[in-house]
Each structure stands twice: as structure tokens, then as C-alpha cells.
Amino acid sequence: MTLPIDPDALTSEDRGEKRATLEMGHEDAVEHVRAAFTEAGFGFPVEFSPSALLNEKIDADRDPYTFLGACNPEVADRALDASEGRIGGLMPCGVVVWQDEPGVQTVYHVSIMRIARLTGMAPDNDEWADIVATTGEMVEEAWTNLDTAE
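Below the sequence we write its predicted C-alpha cells.
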């Protein structure tokens, strides 16, 4: 399969990629991330632990890994309309927390709004640019709320 874009030409900024390290236990890090994003205007309609599922189902012996599905209803509503419903295939916005080692967690996020535009799931217009800017500002606020070095 030939990709329509060159992934090597994309930067982390193109993807809206963010990464931070938290020096605390996994459950404390999940709570800290949830609080930081909540303060920035996100809610969490979805949350699960892929590591717990894999460890249970196939004895994968994975370290803690938690997916937090973040959503802001007003922005989600605008994004559904502007993308003719297609952005729903990427919802909710994912924030993941994984344990690198006991007491050290990585927090990771990519912008589904930017990725939707890159892949043609969302339009290249002023409305979508505003949605990308709005969600970007919210994520920046959440990252600031993490109170840690990136």
C-alpha cells in the first residue's frame, strides 16, 4: 500500500504530538492527568487499561498502560458537523499513560483533529482551522496543568 502522504515528512507538531514524564506511581499519574485535562475543559467518557485486558486475556505481562478518552462536548459537536461525521471514527481524543519503570510514567497525546485533516477526514477550511486551534489551546493548558517538564 502506498501512503498518500510521506510519514517521514511529518513532524510531531504536524500530528499535535505531546509527551511528558511524570515521576509518580501509575495510578497517581492517571489521576494527575485526569485532573489536568478536566481543569482545561475536557471530560472522560471512555477509560480503559489495554495492559489489564491483555494481561488477563493472553497473559501478556505488560506494565500498566491506561487510555483516557478526553472530550469537550462543544468542540466535539462542531467537529462532527464540520467533518460530516467522519471525525467520530477517531473520537474520543486519546491521552495515554504508560509506565516506563516503577515510579516513572509517560503521558502521550496526538491531536485527532490534526490527524483528521492530514488524512482528508476533515476539511481544509477556516472552521476546521478554528477547531484545531481551540483543541490545541485546551491541550496546551492541560499540559501546563501537568506541572512537569516535557
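The domain at 33-146 is CATH 3.30.310.70 (TATA-Binding Protein).
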